[in-house]
Amino acid sequence: MVYMGKKDLFVKKTLFLISMVLFLVIPSVSAINLEVEKITKQGVYIRELENKFFFDLNITNHGASDNFQVYNLLGFTMTPEEVSISKDKSKLITLEVTSFGQLPEKGFYTLPYYMKGSDGNETEEKLTIKVINLKDAFLIGSEDIDLESDSVEIFITNRENFDFSETGEINARFNSPFFDAEKTFNLGPAETKKFTIPLNREDFKELTAGFYTMTAEIEINGAQAAVDGTVSFIEKNIVATTSTEFGFLVSTKIIEKINEGNTIEVSETTIRKNIISRLFTSLSPEPDIVEREFGSVYYTWISEVRPGETYRISVRTNWIFPFLMIFFVIAIVVLAKQYTKTNLILKKRVSFVKAKGGEFALKVSIFVNAKSYVERVNIVDRLPPLVDIYERFGGDHPSRIDKKNRRIEWNFEKLEAGEIRVLSYVIYSKVGVFGKFALPTANAIYEKEGKIQESESNMAFFVAEQRGKKEIEEE
Q1: 0.85 surpassed by pTM
Q2: Which of 37, 164, 255, 380 is the most exposed place for a label (fewest CB within 10 A)?
Q3: Which of 453, 456, 448 is nearest to 475 (CA)?
């Protein structure tokens, strides 16, 4: 029993000592009772700018009224350094944190700090800092552009909870294949600025549809950064076709395909030529496809036309040669028809004759060819000047010689089809004849099936030289 009494006494003493320790320790731990609400969840630290960032804190004191010291052990300067809060009261403060030197890396950085009461008790809190480069703080872009746009709206957005108005004005130069503009402005936290930029359509008429890079060269208080965005050039298909023709004997056709859109267009052009005109046609450039179908030939050009480009096709047909060919064919046909329609054909020839007395003499022959049956044929030939007729005749004798009018006539009652008569006579001159001498045509008047018709011979020529050499010509 005595043993048990000592044990109970030992337990009681131990419990007493533990109670005294708890009594002394608990007040020291719970002497500071602060609730810190971070209104600003994270600060933004831009490496190229001043090394400051700000936090809005709502601090509630659930303990005794006190002045609380704010500090850290990493060398950051914090303002305010001390905060006075009454018991069961809250205070909203903006905590300014300044770093001596740049933070080591991009990303998130945790800064532990302490709030210490006048009794030496303290509580530990943490701040989250987002470390970024200047270019990562902005987002740029624009509305879509098409071929008919006279202006475009661009924008720049502050992506962070950072007030750039406190660091100075922002100077930004926006550049793209469509425009080049410079703007100066302020930009608050998460704020967006919009600008309308005029456009010159000539600057982008040769660009194809798609996405293009827009760059903003930003300068803030000496710090510089380049931010990239995109501009969408909306697809538009416009291919204008013009066709021009000019010339008659040399006919030229010009076809032009003008790409007024902003996409690469595949142009297909087809023309048709007949089997005759194609022989006299030159093409530039050479067609990609040539197809023959019955009496036609089809030429096809397939080409890619870039925006702003003009694809030109020249088709040139020279009708001079075919017209000449047609003319000669028609002339031959007309002569052939004329020949076939002539029922009586006369052909005149002349030849040189040596005279005993030394006079200049020529033998004139007229060949009469009846192609069909004719009646009452009267053939008349005329004598050239300066000559006389030698009245001895070969073949049929003349029916009449009219020396006054210098005419010789032959009359035939009829000539059968295919019948040929040769009429000849000799003319002479006592006066020397030099140069080219022409004999007139002979004429025939006859009756065919009750209708009077006429025929005419060719002209005959001879050339006489002074030395007595004579050359005879016929036509």
Answers
A1: no
A2: 37
A3: 456
